[in-house]
Amino acid sequence: MPTHFNGSRAEMRTLDTFIKLTRCTNSLFSRLTERNTLGDITPSQFAVLEALYHLGSMTQGEVGAKVLKSGSNMTTVIDNLERDSLVRRERDAKDRRVIHVHLTEAGTGKVEAILPGHIAALVDEFSVLSASEQQSLAGLCKKLGKGKSSK
Amino acid sequence: MPTHFNGSRAEMRTLDTFIKLTRCTNSLFSRLTERNTLGDITPSQFAVLEALYHLGSMTQGEVGAKVLKSGSNMTTVIDNLERDSLVRRERDAKDRRVIHVHLTEAGTGKVEAILPGHIAALVDEFSVLSASEQQSLAGLCKKLGKGKSSK
DNA sequence: CGGTAATATTTCGACATCGAACTATACGAT
DNA sequence: ATCGTATAGTTCGATGTCGAAATATTACCG
């Protein structure tokens, strides 16, 4: 459209794809936020709770690896979850550098209260794509997400 | 039960697609950040500068609409850009509620210094996808991003 | 053993981000 | 003109996010 950019065909195609990908995830997340399926917790907090719910108790660092966030960020998010009694920290007895994070009963209940509506919202949002379109999108994302791993 | 089975299949497919989409953009952005093509400015700041560069001076609210961010966020980001003399605020003479945001010479220079490398990085990242795969991805993202317009 | 490296987490400062409440200004209907 | 509402931006408080430096602890190695 009114892009004053005068680049090669490959550049324009890439920029177009990049813009659409970015806007797609932006507006998807913004619509999901509007549905308010998470109630009074934040997306980051839900990501941590969900990881613990599906994968079991983990080291704080492992949680960060699962949700793709930095260690210092994990400290902050888990601080808030602990303050709200949704998780519990437990220092490892053998290796005292390590902290294990566990869901509390309240935390488990929170995930189970949220999950069905959250999944229903996702299914509804993705219903604009057919099954094969979703699989196609997943495949392309997987490829792009992995990157040129064989550098 | 067939109903439950189909529902679960749809849910699993959607969840899989959602996870891959999320991880794709996450790791793509993280790799782009690692390349450090933006130098000493943040991605948000670059988004604002780039919008002003390609579309010309705009109202602060218009900038927020372009980069899909809230008004209060625009105040913050533009504050920092103004502090670094990359943009200039100018209150409208007729409607004194409005603030026009302009690129300074330093701002223009900054964009022009960054843009080529930034685009090259994008092209390189997207080179794991063929031209038709990129177009396919762009189309799927456009559809998913638009959502059920009936809303 | 003892000293250095590696690892896990926290702290700190800077920036981003939002929504709600607030200020200032403009506009529309009566 | 005036009142009420709508609009543009700012302020505020909370959260998220990062990287660098600090802390604590363990592991390695000569």
Please, could you describe this protein's structure?
- The structure is a homodimer of 151-residue chains.
- Chain A has 151 residues and is mainly alpha-helical.
- The first copy, chain A, has a three-stranded antiparallel beta sheet.
- In chain A, α2 crosses α3 and α2 crosses α5.
- The longest helix of chain A is centred in the first third of the chain and has 27 residues.
- The relative contact order of chain A is 0.10.
- At the A-B interface, α1, α5 and α6 of A face α1, α5 and α6 of B.
- The structure holds a DNA duplex (30 and 30 nucleotides).
List keywords for this structure.
homodimer; 151 residues; mainly alpha; 66% helix; 8% strand; globular; DNA-binding
Structural Rg of chain A = 19 Å
Overall geometry of chain A: globular
- Mean residue pLDDT of chain A: 93
Q: Total helix count of chain A?
A: 6
**Major beta sheet, strand line-up of chain A:** 1-3-2
Greatest interface (CB-CB under 8 A), with counts per chain? A-B, 50 and 47 residues
In the predicted model, the low-confidence regions of chain A spanning at least 5 consecutive residues are none
Strand content of chain A: 5-15%
Quickly give the structural class of chain A.
mainly alpha
Largest sheet of chain A: 3 strands, antiparallel
